[in-house]
User: Which sequence fits this backbone?
């Protein structure tokens, strides 16, 4: 399984992808020990049809906590988030979840783009520009998370 410590944003996206995979192909749930374990978690947590594993929710909470801390402490980080606000607000409106956190909205954007690419569908120039900004923010968050975990 991907390591949360090494890249927490990728870890969350990976868990979301595995959740979708197991829902789409339940017959492959025992293909590997990892898939078997994740499938058991889906059943144990009662989210076979929809929802996210507690592992993913906990990682998202940790990332959101770091995000809040950086908003208070780093002007350059705060400026990057402010630049993203119009795009994130539009995404939240499109998903009918206006109270979704900025970090979750950022991850949802990247996940949706990944799904479009798997379907061999393109994205607009504007979406690609937002993707670049979101990726930079999440890379910074993941790197900071890693640095905090390895220095403790």
Assistant:
């Amino acid at each position: 399984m991907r390591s949360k410590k090494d890249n927490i944003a990728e870890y969350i996206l990976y868990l979301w992808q595995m959740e979708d995979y197991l829902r789409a192909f339940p017959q492959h749930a025992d293909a590997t020990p990892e898939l078997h374990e994740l499938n058991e978690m889906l059943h144990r947590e009662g989210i076979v049809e929809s929802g996210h594993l507690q592992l993913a929710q906990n990682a998202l909470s940790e990332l959101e906590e770091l995000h809040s801390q950086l908003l208070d402490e780093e002007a350059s980080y705060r400026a990057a988030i402010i630049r993203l606000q119009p795009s994130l607000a539009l995404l939240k409106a499109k998903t009918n979840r206006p109270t979704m956190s900025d970090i979750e909205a950022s991850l949802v954007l990247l996940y949706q783009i990944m799904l479009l690419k798997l379907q061999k569908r393109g994205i607009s120039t504007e979406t690609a520009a937002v993707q670049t900004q979101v990726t930079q923010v999440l890379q910074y968050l993941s790197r900071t998370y890693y640095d905090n975990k390895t220095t403790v």
